[in-house]
Design a protein that fits this description.
Blueprint (H helix, E strand, L loop, with lengths): L1 H10 L4 E5 L2 E4 H18 L7 E5 L4 H12 L3 E4 L6 H10 L4 E4 L11 E4 L20 E7 L7 E6 H9 L11 E2 L9 H10 L4 E2 L2 E5 H10 L9 E5 L5 H10 L4 E6 L9 E4 L2 H4 L8 E2 L4 E5 L13 E6 L6 E2 L3 H7 E5 L10 E13 L6 E6 L3 E4 L2 E4 H9 L4 E8 L8 E7 L6 H9 L21 H8 L1
Parallel strand pairs: 3-4, 3-5, 5-6, 9-10, 11-12, 12-13
Antiparallel strand pairs: 1-2, 7-8, 8-18, 13-14, 14-15, 16-17, 17-20, 19-20, 20-21, 22-23, 24-25
Length: about 475
């Protein structure tokens, strides 16, 4: 990846790479900044290839410079949103054995457990051509997804996964005249598209936007014509809202509107569907067809292929964007990344393929090879595009000394989005808001939101709750 970005410097050094507030960096200037930071990292003592390096920065110029610098020294980017609770950040960084951390000198969180490299204000180093770029099979990123045990799962993503994303989808490679908005949480897999699909295409990070379906709906409700001047709008991370899409087509759509599907374990997106006006008049927006060389399999409970339209099955994903697995979690990797028989295999296509088991239910549409999303096979939910295991929320609630047992359930479809928790406390009644504040110290807002008077049940309800969960 770094070699391709370097080629843009050699071919068109003054082309804008990043536009941030009142600052514009050319590709040459971006690489200079990254080299300056990379040399600071090298001086600290990066000891081995693919060493995880924490990046405690929000979206923006610093995040882009930091990720490129980490890749220049052959290390692995571990971007963490700095607004997360400090205990949560420390736990995530220690899970993947981070020693070095890139952060703002005057940032809101200063962590003494790690050797911190402060983001320099201005790099003075000139671009060099003697960097030894690593192979495409190197691990480039570790991103976290929700875990049912209460600890987020670290997903290992290789450079070749991102290269396929940046070059083999219906919208990539981007045009050099494109400008891509970068505003997603850097620990969210959509940010890989925002940063790397842009830089690898020689485009500018600021006509293309990739947002969650929830944010798309909110934006459209405030300004239905907000996307009319853009070339591509990609939405993902949750089920597309048909009413919002209908409003966009009535008030001014972008040139191309895409519904995307894909978990972090398959590098941002594995399927895409270009949304049409006819889709806006339907009941559901399909998630589409595989991108590039990705493969989608719909299997029954015995892992037999489902080909008949309208029959539900579980989605399995294979192909060059598939992650290497979970960091230091061989059992979970073996459970989710499985070998399945390839339907209709021949000499060119071996009979067994490694695939990621998504836990998503879907069905084929009658009209060609297109999938409709139906829901989950487990208790996982989406909140703002993030995957959240209900078990993680339960473990968070039960981690408090005042809580005996907790059960979390989805809200009924007719009510507001989100989840509802029932908690049986230990002993006497507690200050509910104080309990929530304590839990918040170690868990993100996707796990803990608010309380109501009937959320906390008598301790005698503990046995019933345990039975309900089992």
């Amino acid at each position: 990846m770094e070699r391709i970005v370097y080629s843009h410097v050699q071919q068109n050094p003054d082309a804008p790479a990043v536009v941030a507030e009142n600052t514009t960096l050319s590709y040459s200037e971006l690489v200079s900044e990254a080299i300056h930071l990379a040399e600071l990292l090298s001086a600290k003592g990066i000891e081995f290839l693919e060493e995880p390096v924490g990046i405690l920065l929000g979206p923006g110029l610093g995040q882009i410079v930091a990720q490129f610098a980490v890749r220049l020294v052959g290390a692995t980017c571990v971007p963490i949103e700095p607004t997360l609770p400090e205990l949560r950040i420390v736990d995530m960084l220690k899970q993947v054995h981070v020693r070095y951390l890139i952060a703002e000198k005057d940032g809101p969180i200063q962590l003494s457990d790690f050797q911190t490299v402060h983001l320099p204000r201005v790099g003075q180093t000139q671009p060099r051509s003697d960097w030894e770029f690593g192979p495409e099979t190197d691990r480039s990123h570790i991103l976290f997804t929700s875990g049912s045990t209460g600890k987020p799962k670290p997903v290992q993503i290789r450079a070749e996964n991102i290269l396929h994303l940046a070059t083999r989808t219906p919208v990539t490679p981007l045009l050099q005249t494109d400008r891509v908005a970068e505003f997603n949480n850097p620990g969210f897999d959509l940010s890989l598209f925002e940063i790397w699909a842009t830089l690898l295409s020689g485009a500018t990070i600021v006509s293309v936007i990739f947002i969650t379906a929830a944010l798309f709906r909110i934006t459209v409700s405030a300004c239905p014509s907000a996307f009319s001047s853009l070339r591509h709008v990609l939405m993902g991370g949750d089920v597309a809202n048909v009413q919002a899409i209908r409003s966009v087509f009535e008030h001014g759509p972008p040139q191309h509107l895409w519904n995307t599907y894909g978990p972090t374990e398959c590098t941002t997106l594995a399927m895409m569907h270009e949304v049409t006006r006819a889709d806006a008049d339907s009941e559901q927006i399909p998630v589409g067809r595989p991108v590039g060389d990705m493969e989608i399999f719909l299997l029954d409970e015995d892992q037999r292929p489902i080909t008949e339209p309208g029959l539900p099955g579980e989605v399995y994903i294979a192909g060059p964007q598939q992650a290497a697995g979970y960091f230091a979690r061989p059992a979970e990797t073996a459970k989710q990344f499985v070998e399945i028989p390839r339907p209709g295999h021949d000499i060119r296509n071996p009979g067994v393929v490694r695939a990621y088991r998504t836990g998503d239910r879907a069905q084929w549409r009658v009209d060609a090879n297109v999938l409709d999303f139906l829901g989950r096979t487990d208790t996982q939910v989406k909140h703002g595009g993030f995957r959240v295991e209900l078990g993680e929320i339960e473990r968070a609630l039960e981690s408090h000394p005042a809580a005996h047992t907790a059960v979390v359930a989805r809200q009924p479809p007719s009510t507001a989005e989100g989840t509802h928790a029932l908690v049986a406390p230990n002993g006497d009644a507690q200050d509910k808001q104080a309990i929530l504040r304590d839990i918040w110290d170690g868990h993100p807002g996707t796990c803990v939101m608010s309380s109501k008077d009937d959320d906390f049940l008598p301790a005698s309800a503990a046995t019933s709750l345990q039975g309900r969960r089992s």
